[in-house]
Amino acid sequence: MKMEGKEWFADWFDTTYYHTLYKNRDVSEAKLFIQRLIEYLPLKKNDCVLDLACGKGRHAVTLSECGFNVLGVDLSANSISEAKQFENDSLQFAVHDMREVIPNEQFDGVFNLFTSFGYFDSIDENQKAVDSIAKMLKPKGILVIDFMNAHQVVENLVESETKLVDGITFNIERNFDGKHIFKRISFNADGQSHSFTERVQALTLEDFFSLLDAASFKILDSFGNFDLKPFEEMTSDRLIIIAQLK
User: Which pLDDT score is estimated for 135?
Assistant: First the structure.
């Protein structure tokens, strides 16, 4: 079932079924990725950082363990409710739309990880999100965006598959319309038929360059995987961008 009038991500991400389908995400891989990033980034212990679109908080927890003061925010109230179990003096969570500025907050670094961008209906909304990030960063603040490598995903698109998780059979179909990658997920659970569609813009490094440049960022580096190897459009699994506010 789908709730009318809600954006697809606000609808799907706030269901228990979303967390069931993606329950096996690699926490140890996420931790190692953050630790490698911290070794590279010009951030200091006790700096204030924002985990933007933090989900249930796995990256935010590691950022806190690395010595930062962390705020994790996400549009999904259910995800934030789960994340709040990890709160402590240096780690807090809140419900927030990434397109809006968080009042009275300034950060040394902002992290937007695990393809948590490009969900919107228009480039204008992408720009609004990047502009909001710029307003929340201190001068020379750092932005990290971890996105899929759209070229590699499109070239290797798995059009159809089935996953059985916790007794639920998820039927998944994918396609690319030239601008967006669609992932249609249908299943039966709790006596009802359910159907959701994920839609992510197939943004390239050039697209991000335009968005970031318009918000007064400069790209410092780009990596192609969680080991921080150089980005190669044809072969890299990820597009990880390190940018700094001018």
Answer: 98
